[in-house]
Structures are given as structure tokens and as C-alpha cells.
Amino acid sequence: MNIGIIGLGLMGGSFSKALKKYSICDKVYGYARTPKTIEKILELDLVDRLLPLDELKKECDIIVLAIPVDSIIGLMDDLKDVDDNTTIIDMGSTKEIIVKNIPQEIRKNFVAAHPMTGTEKFGPEAAIDYLYEGKAVVLCDLEENDELHKQRAIDIFQQIGMRIIYMNSKDHDIHACYMSHLPHAISYSLANTVMNHEDPRSIIALAAGGFKDMSRIAKSSPDMWTDIFRQNRNNLLKSIDLFEENMKDVRQMIEKEDYKSLKEWMKKANTLHEIL
Ligand SMILES: NC(=O)C1=CN([C@@H]2O[C@H](COP(=O)(O)OP(=O)(O)OC[C@H]3O[C@@H](n4cnc5c(N)ncnc54)[C@H](O)[C@@H]3O)[C@@H](O)[C@H]2O)C=CC1
Ligand SMILES: O=C(O)C(=O)Cc1ccc(O)cc1
């Protein structure tokens, strides 16, 4: 079995490393567009060979899309002519709009997946060993898939050490919003708030663990996250409203010097870590 990966950045490059580590397939092929990325992928030896898209479609039993969520939709038309036995798996962070855009010709082949693991780094150099091990992957709307494609996706993620969670794409986007997309919006906001107020020398001299923890994901790729925020816009707007309510609450408690309520509010937040 051959597997083709379109997009060899953090997710695609790390996936290739996992496939090789567990000897899951005969060959891992890749497709990349820009000369600079191609050069990096070859230098890092991330795949057995890079192929033009048409060749990759012919050579591979499974094609993995590890590109930004709008690019996944943009590429779908080029995949309409794959063989009935070719499985397509996307790794996008959003699912509802992607699923809605899958052309009918490949709906049974196309498995919508979201690995719940990653880092703030991007590009081929960001690819790491063990990114997927022990982590969860959400598979969405599997009732729309042929048994062959569904089972292949389940098998491959389990073989690289992942736990499978099943969900419909609408619910997925709501949960992904609160667990991932809202935290990224908050981290970008915090980074900009602090940079607007503090000069770089103070930031270097004074940044402590808490600020570094909360701003780490503000280093994430603006290309990737603009697409995600656009695709999950409605859920994100609602979650920002709810977050603003909490900011208003804390503001009011401080303004009124209501430290008793403030402490209770903080104690409630502490309980999150009994779950995590
Ligand atoms: N970064 C993360 O932690 C996670 C990302 N994801 C999703 O995985 C996907 C990939 O993300 P990353 O690997 O982090 O991004 P990345 O930026 O590290 O890699 C994406 C690669 O795809 C290439 N690319 C973009 N459009 C392309 C196209 N049309 N054809 C061929 N190559 C193309 C880019 O040049 C880049 O090398 C995204 O859909 C993202 O939402 C999912 C879970 C975690
Ligand atoms: O770096 C982190 O902590 C992340 O949260 C990475 C991440 C980014 C996007 C996803 O869809 C899932 C995970």
C-alpha cells in the first residue's frame, strides 16, 4: 500500500514520520508546490519521493490532505477523478464547511478527520516524531463513507497510536471552537495587548511562565488560522461573546472591590484542572 501526503508541514511531515516509524505502508509519496518547500522536504528526507499531483493520485491507495482548511476545499475538484478504491483523508481543524463542499463523486472516499494534536510551529521543519502517539483524532460523519474507506482511516490512525472519537461535523466545530479556536483568538489578543503597552526590552526582561504559557499559541501560522476563523466564524463569534461576559464579570468584581465573589469565581476556574 502507498500513501500520498499533500502538504508536508507540521501535520503532514509528522504523519509521514509516524507511517515510516510503524512501517505502515510500502511508500510515502508527497506533493508540494513551492520550490522553497520542495527543497526543505527533500533536505529533511520527509517522504520517499515527491510526485506531481496526477501521478500521486495514480500511485496512492490513501491520500492525506494536510494543508490549510481553505486549500482543502480548493483542491477537492482536482481529486474528483480518483479511483473508487482511493481513500482521501483530510486533517483540517474545521469540519462542517469542508464536509459540505466535498463533491458527490468522492463523498464515499473522503474521510473528514481532525487530529487533536499539534504545536504552534509550522512548515516542514516543524515536523516531529511522536506527534500523534496517545492523542485523539475526531472522525466526522462516517455514515457517508464506504466501509473500505472508513475502516482504512480508523486502522491507520490506530496504527500510529491514536484514540478515535466519532462526532458529526456540526458538533465537532462547536467543541473545536471552545477547546482550540477561542483559545487561539485569546492568545493572539493577549500578545497584541501586551505589545501595544510594553516595549520589547521590558517583555524580554519580565516575561514569566504564565505570560509565556498563555502567548505560546500566538506564534501560530496566520495563514492557517485566518482560514480556520473564517470557516468557524459563527461559533467563534458566539464564544467570543461568552468570553467577553467573563471579562466583564471579573472587571466588575475588581471595580466594586468584591474580593469574596472574585475568590469564588477563581475557585470555580481552578476546578477545570480536576478534569484535565
Ligand atoms: N498546526 C496544528 O497544530 C494543527 C493543524 N491542523 C490542520 O492541519 C492542516 C495542516 O496544518 P499544518 O501542518 O499545521 O500547516 P503547515 O503550514 O505546517 O503545513 C501546511 C503545508 O501545506 C502547504 N500547502 C498549502 N496549500 C497547499 C496546496 N494547495 N497544495 C500543496 N501544498 C499546500 C504549505 O506550503 C505548507 O508547507 C490544516 O488544515 C490545519 O488546520 C490540525 C490539527 C493541528
Ligand atoms: O499548539 C497547541 O497547543 C495546539 O492547540 C495545536 C492545535 C492547533 C490546531 C488544531 O486544530 C489542534 C491543535
Automatic annotation (TrEMBL):
Residues 1-276 form the Prephenate/arogenate dehydrogenase domain. SUPFAM superfamilies: 6-phosphogluconate dehydrogenase C-terminal domain-like, NAD(P)-binding Rossmann-fold domains. Its EC number is 1.3.1.12. Gene3D superfamilies: 6-phosphogluconate dehydrogenase C-terminal like domain (1.10.3660.10), NAD(P)-binding Rossmann-like Domain (3.40.50.720). Pfam families: PDH_C (PF20463), PDH_N (PF02153). Keywords: Amino-acid biosynthesis, Aromatic amino acid biosynthesis, NAD, Oxidoreductase, Tyrosine biosynthesis. Pathway: Amino-acid biosynthesis; L-tyrosine biosynthesis; (4-hydroxyphenyl)pyruvate from prephenate (NAD(+) route): step 1/1. InterPro entries: 6-PGluconate_DH-like_C_sf, NAD(P)-bd_dom_sf, PDH_C, PDH_N, Preph/Arog_dehydrog, Prephen_DH. One of its GO terms (biological process) is tyrosine biosynthetic process. It catalyses: prephenate + NAD(+) = 3-(4-hydroxyphenyl)pyruvate + CO2 + NADH. The keyword Methyltransferase does not apply. PROSITE patterns: PDH_ADH. GO terms for molecular function: NAD+ binding; prephenate dehydrogenase (NAD+) activity; prephenate dehydrogenase (NADP+) activity. Belongs to the prephenate/arogenate dehydrogenase family. This is prephenate dehydrogenase. It comes from Arcobacter arenosus. The lineage of its organism: Bacteria, Pseudomonadati, Campylobacterota, Epsilonproteobacteria, Campylobacterales.
